[in-house]
Amino acid sequence: MESVAILYIAIGSYERFWIPFQTSCERYFLPGMSKTYFVFTDSKHINSSDNISVTHVADEGWPGNTLHRFRFFLRQENNLSPYTYCFFFNANACLLKPITAEEVLPTQQENELVGLTWRPCGNEFIHDFPYERNSLSTAFIAANEGTAYYQGGFFGGKTAAVMQLIQTLNKHIDQDESQQITAVNNDESHLNRYFLNHPPKCLSAQYGRPQEWEQPSDPSMIFLQKERILGPWALYRLKGKSIEYVLRSGYSTVKRYLKQLFNATPTNPS
């Protein structure tokens, strides 16, 4: 029987998203398939059970908790390998309706990986994509490269291919850090570089968009607006910026900071 490993990080206050996510994922993601949740957390309230495997990790703050996610995952490498498929979900992911195997799983004719875009696949306005442009970074993508921008909140595919991705990106991030380089959108920048070389099955924003967006109007999954759950200034505290600092910086800085904060492109997908 085909089985699915779900990777999930719930560090600090993000543990509050766990129950809504797990409940919706169990109900709607690949219904009928056996799922095991590999949770990486510092919480004392999330415990292992029949289909939940908890790995305790330290809180590395921002951006360590997101940038080092691949390092976390490798701690369970041997336990993940028996699963047919493996998918990562952002902590604030919430499924709203069924996502079936026919919709999301790669076929034999496609790459063994799956990625989720903010915009329609093959969008021609590649100059708008917030790729890493520092040529010294292992996440570098040149101005004439790329056909889609993949967001970091959901990816997966066949387990062997996903583990290769995890191993490679962990190595690249360590290499960047040894040179004191941090990619512009952290792990997401490295994911986009990898997908440029290993094109995934491309899912549109219909399969995952921020809660605050109005389009697509009937998504299968949303990413809950974090301020609504964690409080209006929680993200500023978590990411090491005070609201006073941001407000003193002026509107252009606020706009730029919010774009970085939510890893969102300037316009909504159509």
Shape: globular
Q: Pairing-aware structural class of the strands and helices?
A: alpha/beta
Number of helices: 11
> What amount of the residues lies in strands?
15-25%
Rg from alpha-carbon coordinates? 18 Å
Q: What's the end-to-end separation, in Å?
A: 38 Å
| Major sheet strand order | 3-2-1-4-7-6-8
Return the CATH class.
Alpha Beta
Q: Which fold name fills CATH's third level, the topology?
A: Spore Coat Polysaccharide Biosynthesis Protein SpsA, Chain A
Please state the second-level CATH architecture. Alpha-Beta Complex
- CATH homologous superfamily descriptor: Spore Coat Polysaccharide Biosynthesis Protein SpsA, Chain A
Provide an overview of this structure.
This protein is an alpha/beta fold and 270 residues long. The protein has a single domain (3-231), classed as Spore Coat Polysaccharide Biosynthesis Protein SpsA, Chain A. The protein has helices at 18-28, 61-67, 69-74, 77-80, 101-104, 159-178, 187-197, 226-230, 234-238, 243-248, 251-262, and strands spanning 3-10, 34-41, 52-56, 85-89, 93-95, 113-117, 150-158, 201-203, 209-210, 221-223. The strands form 2 sheets. Strands 3-2-1-4-7-6-8 form a 7-stranded mixed sheet, sandwiched between helices. It has a 3-stranded mixed sheet with strand order 5-10-9. Helix 6 (159-178) packs across helix 7 (187-197). The N and C termini lie far apart (38 Å). Mean pLDDT is 85; it is low at 242-270.
